Amino acid sequence: MDEFFAAPGNRVPASPGFPVLWERVRGQLAGGKLIRPRLTHIAWSAFAAAGSAGAAAPGRAGTPAPGPSGAPASVPAGAPASVPPGAPAAGPEGSPAHELPDPQCVRLAASFEMLHAALLVHDDVVDRDWRRRGRPTVGELFRRDAAAAGAPEHEAEHAGESAAILAGDLLLAGALRLATTCTTHPERSRAVADVVFEAVSASAAGELDDLLLSLHRFGAEHPGVQDILDMERLKTATYSFEAPLRAGALLAGAPAEQAERLARAGALLGVGYQVVDDVLGTFGDPEVTGKSVDADLRSGKATVLTAHGMQTPDVRRVLEDLAAGTTTVAAARAALTASGAREAGVALATDLVDRARGILDGLPLPPTQREQLHELCHHVLNRHS
């Protein structure tokens, strides 16, 4: 990603304000857990290690996938994928190989991290959030600039939101550019592009569903737990877990059926991750998560916890009172606790992750990559942030 932002052809120097936006967009990529690049690399290395990565002609097993120039990539079979893309790979027995992962895989992995940054920037606009990962967002920086220049508060906020939309657009374009140029293999290029485009569409649909579910949370047809799970799969799990695994496998030349099964496991794992997020968003330790445990309840966000609680009339009344400003977040949290919402959320996440494990156990994955995916399953259920 550093190379992408440093490339002269990706800049537009004629605009006096664009360089500032460009550098602030670049700053949005700092930090993060790098889950999407790791999943991309795990999937790619699993099938490359299995000898599925063919050369230019489809179906030629046992040959490393070609690099961008068409030359074979030099990644040892069985290379562990727990390191982020761009870090040195290891040999089959875990010894350093002093070689970088396949450049195609690195490019695809970077595209998913850039896509993640793009969607977060747009999500912050939708949610009217001005901080992310403990730092001011791109929108907040431009809002401050406008306020410092004397703009009224509403105009400064509009300037910040507008700049954030443009920043997200730039990141989205960059992600698509990386994804669609990650390989010269025509069939794999089309397959990867389809996965990324579908992930973007799914996220947009999920973002809209999130907004609408929250608006209708007290109606006669208030959202149920399954409605929330469907939304969380579309909004986040698809682009964060399902798509990186599918695209990484397809880039390595994996059979479509195996890539599909791996993606199904990713979807379950990703939704489980989001359910844990819901639990941490209300019952987590803010000193550990870095997030308020009041924000979800105060904003009226529809989560699996509130969907569970809405099945109980007493909890529904408390949540309605909270929306009306006649009770406190603490009272709403206590009502959810009494309803068993927290335990229900943990049980649901556990079931989703267990189902993902079952699919993974049925796939012909190398031991290293299988272990890495099982470690990720454990992390999803046991994380505190």
Automatic annotation (TrEMBL):
Organism in which the protein naturally occurs: Kocuria tytonicola
Cofactor: Mg(2+)
UniProt superkingdom: Bacteria
The name this protein goes by in its record: Polyprenyl synthetase family protein
Family note: Belongs to the FPP/GGPP synthase family.
Keyword annotations: Magnesium, Metal-binding, Transferase
Signal sequence bounds: none
An MF annotation (GO) of this entry: metal ion binding
UniProt-annotated stretches for the region Disordered: 54-101
SUPFAM superfamilies the record matches: Terpenoid synthases
One of the Pfam families matching this protein, by short name: polyprenyl_synt
Record GO biological process: isoprenoid biosynthetic process
